[in-house]
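User: structure tokens for this one?
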Amino acid sequence: MNKIITISRQYGSGGREIGAKLAAKYGIPFYDNEIITRAAKESGYAEAAFHNAETKATNSLLYSIAMGMSAYGNQEIGFSQLSLDDRIYLAQSDVIRKVAEEGPCVIVGRCADYILKEVPNVINIFIHADLEFRKERAIRVNNLSPVKAEESIGKMDKRRANYYNYHSGEKWGKATNYDLSVNSSHIGIDNTVECIKAFIDSLPE
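Assistant:
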């Protein structure tokens, strides 16, 4: 298997667990927070700055204003004039490209599908799930109260969508941005892993 697999996911859908299990089945590296740790080490920025960049993305308009209206897309603006969050994104993007160059792997979140859009052999997966399934996982896996669970689901999905939409100019969760979209609540975590693996294995090398 010589594919780079990116996984985007709704909060509570089990996307991270699915990605880890998929990587284990193929015997390839799995990257989630490891991207942040490596990007922090290589860039010199604190790991907290990488976590903060995504958690700021609560409102798309305010986020765009705070981030400088995608300043890094303007070739006339030098790196030194970029906001800290834009620099954080670029540092993270650099690490994502490097791990993809190192060989087959699974990368969760962080706009990896968009960052690697020009790279061959990239398979982009989106994991979604029904609300009740996501609430149950948020309560059980993340130790949230039933009241907090639904609130956190809405908040985290909004952050992920705004972060992705801002940096990519695409729409988070839009079917045409992915090669496969799976509802993990319909078939469960392990069957979702098997479903994705069967799809990948059916593709030409």
